[in-house]
Amino acid sequence: MDSTTPLITDLNLRKICTELEGYEDVSTDIFISSAHTIVYDELLNAGYNTERLTLIELYLAAHFAALTYPVTASEGIGGKVNESFQYKVGLGLNFTKYGQQALLLSGGMLATKRISISWLGSIPA
Questions:
Q1: Considering only 29-33, 34-38, 52-56, 83-87, which range has the smallest mean pLDDT?
Q2: Of 11, 14, 96, 118, whose Cβ has the fewest other Cβ atoms within 10 Å?
Q3: Where are the beta strands (DSSP E) in the chain?
Q4: What percentage of the chain reaches a pLDDT higher than 90?
């Protein structure tokens, strides 16, 4: 595995990512390259085989696509057409079903790390 050649293709991504339906003319290169960079940088030396790394890359790319092209959360027709989408911040990979699968497949290695700092001293005068 090298840093420049993704493990997945546009066709692989479109097979699982329903959010891309209707966006056939949109390039998925940025989603795939972002996912590949993360897999290469964070998981290459984690001991996973190529098949598992490929699945993680696939679900990460789908996660990024789903964030960019979310499905409609609610629709309405009654004299006018309404469309609304639901966005939540701070959920990271847990925001989409694809990100949740990437977390599962990575054994949690992609989970957001939380850092806290405690000050035990006093404020200088």
A1: 83-87
A2: 118
A3: 74-77, 81-84
A4: 58
